[in-house]
Write a structure and sequence with these properties.
The protein is of the alpha+beta class and 173 residues long. It contains two helices and twelve strands. The protein has one domain. A hairpin with a 5-residue loop joins β4 and β5. The longest helix is centred in the first third of the chain and has 22 residues.
Length: 173
């Protein structure tokens, strides 16, 4: 897992040096990802690997991927984002593009599910990680809550309203 996820800021949080250092890592990774992708395309995949064994078993699953969503959000699976759940492909699935989708940031709405909460479909889900103080002689590692993007796979014909999405496969009928 990457150490480039954003900090999940919440009320009552006991601030530590690591929180600010983690936020710096997140911004640096975001800028770096945007600059690298800007040399290729405005958005899209820099790398995509599907799970061939699951594909042969009738499921679409991402092993690894790196790129930029159309809304400008950089992603890296599995480093900064968990792979979405596999999508079973049945005769009823239909033809068309299969998309990896990330919920859009809701204006003024809830965009985060804390680590202790069940997933609600928010853009980010919290995860508790141990982070070292980056300063020589600094304090011991501390547990902080980071926010990892929660992507999902959308079958052909599913609405992309409320999501930023990229096609990963095209199913034929």
């Amino acid at each position: 897992m990457s150490n480039a996820n954003r900090v999940l800021w919440s009320e009552g949080l006991f601030l530590r040096t690591q929180h600010f250092q983690q936020q710096d890592r997140f911004f640096e990774a975001t800028v770096r990802g945007a600059l690298q992708a800007g040399q290729l395309h405005t958005f899209g995949f820099q790398q995509l690997t599907l799970d061939q064994a699951l594909l042969e078993a009738g499921q679409i699953s991402i092993l690894s991927a790196r790129g930029i969503f159309p809304d400008g959000t950089p992603f890296s699976i599995p480093d900064m984002m968990d792979a979405p759940r596999p999508l079973p492909v049945t005769p009823d699935t239909g033809a068309g593009p299969v998309l990896i989708a990330l919920p859009l940031e809701p204006p003024g709405g809830v965009g985060f599910d804390p680590a202790h909460a069940a997933a609600s479909g928010a853009r980010y889900h919290g995860r508790i990680v141990s982070v070292r103080d980056a300063v020589q002689g600094g304090s011991d590692p501390e547990e902080i809550e980071i926010a990892r993007p929660q992507a999902l796979l959308l079958a052909p014909g599913k609405s992309v309203g409320g999501y930023t999405a990229l096609p990963i496969a095209d199913l034929k009928g």
